Every structure is written in C-alpha cells, then in structure tokens.
C-alpha cells in the first residue's frame, strides 16, 4: 500500500511560510509523502491550508478554495482537509459551520497536533477542532521540511507585544516569547553543518528580541554571535520595528561581515497624526533618523518598507507626508497595501473610514512614485561587480533567456548569463551589472567567476535523494556540539 500524499497551501507572512515547513515535516514524520509536482487539485490525500488573517479578503480566499474541494472530497471519501494558521485561530467556531466537509481545524499555538488530529478525525469520522490559547511548545522543536537546501529560516521569537490598531496578529499569536540564545545558535550551527549558507532570523518583531529575556541588547549580541559561525555566509532578519531599532543593532550590522547590507523597516505611514492613531510608537523624524544612521554606517544598504494607504482618518495632507518620507528615504522597494478593515481590531470601528475610490487613487500615486525611485536606485548598481548567490526558481524566464538568477548581498534579484561551467543553487557567482529594471538587475556579460560551495553540494545531494524524504530535518538540534564543519570553500511583514 502506497503512502498517503499531502499538500500544504500557505498564505501570509514569513512566519506562516516557516510554519508550513514544520507542517510538512510533521506530516512526513508521520509517514505521509509530499504530492508530486503537478498533482491535480484535489488529488492529494491530505490538503492543509495555513491561513492568514491580515487582509480583508482572507476569508473569501479560504472559503472559495474549500468550496472547490468539496465535490472532490465527496468523490474521494478518504481525502482529508485541515485548516490552520491565524484565520483558524480567529474563526475557530465558524469554519466547520461554513464548511462542514473540513476534517481538522487547528490554531497557531498547536501546529504540532496536526497528525494526531487527522488520525482522530479519520477514526471518529467527525471534525476535530482544537485551538490552544497559548504556545504549547516552541515551534522550532518540531520536525521541519525546509524548502531550500542552501537557505533557512530560524525563528528567534514568536508573538508580539505591540498593540497596533490595524493589526490582529498579536491577538492570534500571543505575547512575545523569546528562545534562549544558545538554542538559536545551536540550530544555526546544525543548519550550517548540513550545508546551509544563508539564514534569516525570524520574529513578529524580530529586533524586540531580548524583551522576554531581560536583555535590551540581546538582538545585537545574537547578530554578532552569528558572525562567529564558520561557514555561515549570509545573515538576514525580518521584520524589525522602528521602536526597537537601536544604535547597537546598527553597529552590529555594520561590523559583522556576514550580516547583509539589507534592512526591511516598516513605515506604515509618514504622518505623525496617523502613526499616533495606529499606535505606532515612533514619528516621522525618528524613522528618517534611523534611515540616516543606517546609510551612514552602511552606504550600500538596500532598505525596503511596508506602507498602508487609506488608514481611517487619513487626510490628503497626511498622505502627502507619507509621500515625503518615501522621497526622503528612497527605499529600494516597498510593499504597499490599501487599508483593510479587520474585525476585532480597534481601527475597524474608527470614524473616518476612507472611500474606496480615494484609497485607490492615493495607492496608485504611491506605487508610481516608488516605482520611479526603485528604478533610479537600481540604476546606481549598473557597473558594480557583485557576488550573487544562485537561487532556485526565482527566474521565471530563465529557460527562455538562457540565464540563471540569484540574490546580491543586499537581496536585490539579479539575472545573469549562464556560465559555461556547471553552477548549482547555493553556489556563488561574480558578475558585473549591465542593466537595471525597477524590480531586478541584469548581468548580461560573461560570468567573472564561479565559487562552488557546500551549499551547492547540499542542493546537489538533496536533488539526488528520494523525493519523498528530501529536506526533512529536526528543528531542535541534538544534545552536544554539532559535528565539526568542513573547511568552507569560499544570510509579514507584519509589524
């Protein structure tokens, strides 16, 4: 009898992406195998939705997908459907009522229960709804099926202590809980020993790390400690909050060679009035001051941001203040959103909700300005020689253009001419940038150098391994020091 297949569909922020790696690891640890690429919708034995509750259309997207699966499930009685994540945590009592063909509903705090709940639903032949109100175990103790052989997420905290009026995440993921630094570094060392060369430190409010430990400089110390790990080439983190972005963090970024010159710093609004209504604990002057300090310490840093347009009460003058900050900060790119009313947040009941057509017009003006700035900033990269870590699946047209794609140290996407010698995801190439577009760079000349890496070796080993077991690892490193590293051959938004 062949093993049952599974599919995990992920919506939302980086935390959800990493949680989905854990859900996949749990299912594979329980004997399921990932549905092959190209499997038709409804043909997997288990379909898991890892949901997001940040945007207004999250509910419609989920129930639309569930509706399409209902007749398929009727034809395949053994098929199971599970719904987890933030929307499940929020709508625990309504999902099974609206979609009675769902077998399991689980929340953000008990993802480790998924295999048990699926088995219980199968035996009892009724839906299992289990939502924990607090974290049962830190998620990094769970089995994980990493999506990449050469890059990995590492959670350093869960939850958030902020009370932003537009955000429902703290109510769904709870107060901040920090991992011990030793546990984090042990996981990073284990990942590096497996060939990972880039890690991204992850938290709802990543640079608040230490507030649960009583150490205000814990995050900068963690960055510096990552710099001492042999074989770790690139360190990134997301997403920080301006309130907690202190000078010691800037110094650690600038002085630690493997911490990349990249920063995602959510602005949300450039208006002090709107920031106050959002309960954001900084103002325009403080935000621009951070950008100025970062650029002084790291002139080549690429800075990105999040911006919400049309928050309740936003006037034209308020919006112009946002445009002013965008012009001053000159972000490499920006994730721009139209304000989305979310039931359960204070902003949903605020007076001064902005008409849709006004929000749309402002949004289009903001996007046009940022596109112009992104293109201008990218043009400054033309003529530069960059080390690019080869990526997998980031260049949709690479086959037709005979190019490969990868990420520069500042995380800009680079498409480059395929070199004559073999190159693998995780390897590093040296290229000269010849052309810039708003959202990518081109290196059209011959590759100047190729450095084969342990990360490339790890990718090659994974692709040669049986597909159903590729990429499974335990999130919690074993007791004792990790095995010695071989000599190196050469790193939602929701805050």
Description of the structure:
The protein has 495 residues and is an alpha/beta fold. Helices cover 33% and strands 20% of the residues. It contains 15 helices and 23 strands. The chain has a 7-stranded mixed sheet with strand order 20-21-18-17-16-19-22. The protein has a 6-stranded parallel sheet with strand order 2-1-3-4-5-6, with helices on both faces. Strands 8-11-12 form a 3-stranded parallel sheet, sandwiched between helices. Helix 8 packs parallel to helix 9 and helix 12 runs parallel beside helix 13.
Q: Note the beta-strand portion.
A: 15-25%
Helix content: 25-40%
Shape summary:
globular
Contiguous runs where pLDDT drops below 50 for at least 5 residues: 467-495
Mean pLDDT rating: 90
| Strand segment tally | 23
Helix/strand class: alpha/beta
Tell me about the largest β-sheet: 7 strands, mixed
Strand order of the largest sheet: 20-21-18-17-16-19-22
Write down the Rg. 23 Å
Cα(first) to Cα(last) distance is 47 Å
Distinct helical segment count: 15
Layout of strands and helices, then pairs:
Blueprint: E1 5-10, H1 14-29, E2 33-34, E3 46-51, H2 58-75, E4 80-85, H3 86-90, H4 95-98, E5 104-106, H5 114-124, E6 128-130, E7 143-145, E8 151-155, E9 157-158, H6 169-173, E10 177-178, H7 181-193, E11 198-202, H8 218-227, E12 234-238, H9 247-255, E13 262-264, H10 272-278, H11 284-297, E14 302-309, H12 316-329, E15 333-338, H13 356-379, E16 385-390, H14 398-401, E17 403-407, E18 413-417, E19 428-432, E20 435-436, E21 441-443, E22 449-451, H15 454-464, E23 472-474
Helix pairs in contact: 8-9, 12-13
């Amino acid at each position: 009898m062949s093993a049952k297949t599974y599919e995990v569909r992920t919506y939302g922020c980086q935390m959800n992406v990493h949680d989905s790696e854990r859900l996949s690891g749990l299912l594979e640890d329980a004997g399921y195998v990932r549905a092959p690429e190209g499997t038709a919708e409804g043909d997997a034995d288990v379909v898991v939705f890892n949901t997001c509750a940040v945007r207004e259309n999250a509910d419609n997207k989920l129930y639309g997908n569930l509706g399409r699966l209902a007749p398929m499930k009727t034809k395949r009685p053994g098929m199971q459907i599970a719904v987890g994540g933030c929307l499940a945590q929020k709508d625990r009592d309504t999902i099974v009522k609206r979609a009675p063909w769902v077998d399991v509903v689980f929340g953000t705090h008990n993802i480790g229960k998924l295999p048990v709940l699926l088995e219980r639903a199968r035996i009892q032949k009724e839906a299992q709804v289990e939502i924990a109100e607090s974290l049962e175990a830190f998620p990094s103790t769970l089995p994980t099926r990493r999506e990449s052989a050469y890059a990995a997420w590492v959670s350093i905290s869960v939850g958030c202590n902020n009370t932003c009026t537009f955000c429902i995440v703290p109510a769904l993921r709870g107060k901040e809980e920090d991992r011990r630094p030793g546990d984090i570094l042990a996981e990073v060392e284990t990942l590096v020993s497996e060939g990972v060369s880039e890690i991204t430190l992850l938290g709802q409010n990543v640079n608040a790390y230490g507030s649960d430990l009583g150490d205000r400089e814990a995050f900068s110390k963690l960055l510096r400690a990552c710099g001492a790990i042999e074989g770790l080439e690139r360190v990134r983190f997301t997403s920080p909050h301006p309130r907690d972005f202190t000078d010691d963090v800037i110094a650690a970024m600038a002085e630690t060679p493997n911490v990349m010159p990249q920063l995602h710093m959510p602005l949300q609004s450039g208006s002090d009035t709107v920031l106050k209504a959002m309960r954001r604990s900084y103002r325009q002057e403080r935000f621009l001051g951070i950008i100025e300090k970062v650029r002084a310490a790291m002139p080549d840093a690429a800075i990105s941001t999040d911006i919400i347009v049309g928050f309740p009460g936003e006037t034209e003058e308020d919006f112009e203040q946002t445009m002013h900050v965008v012009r001053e900060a000159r972000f490499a790119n920006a994730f721009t959103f139209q304000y989305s009313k979310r039931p359960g947040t204070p902003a949903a009941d605020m007076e001064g909700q902005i008409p849709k057509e006004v929000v749309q017009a402002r949004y289009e003006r903001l996007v046009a300005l940022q596109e112009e700035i992104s293109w201008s900033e990218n043009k400054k990269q033309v003529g530069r020689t960059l080390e690019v870590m080869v990526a997998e699946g980031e260049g949709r047209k690479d086959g037709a253009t005979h190019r490969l794609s990868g990420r520069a140290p500042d995380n800009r996407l680079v498409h480059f001419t395929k070199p004559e010698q073999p190159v693998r995801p995780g390897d590093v190439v040296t290229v000269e940038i010849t052309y810039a577009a708003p959202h990518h760079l081109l290196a059209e000349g011959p590759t100047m150098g190729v450095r084969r890496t342990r990360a490339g070796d790890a990718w090659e080993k994974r692709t040669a391994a049986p597909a159903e077991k590729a990429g499974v690892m335990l999130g919690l490193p074993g007791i004792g020091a990790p095995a010695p590293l071989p000599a190196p051959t050469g790193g939602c938004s929701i805050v």
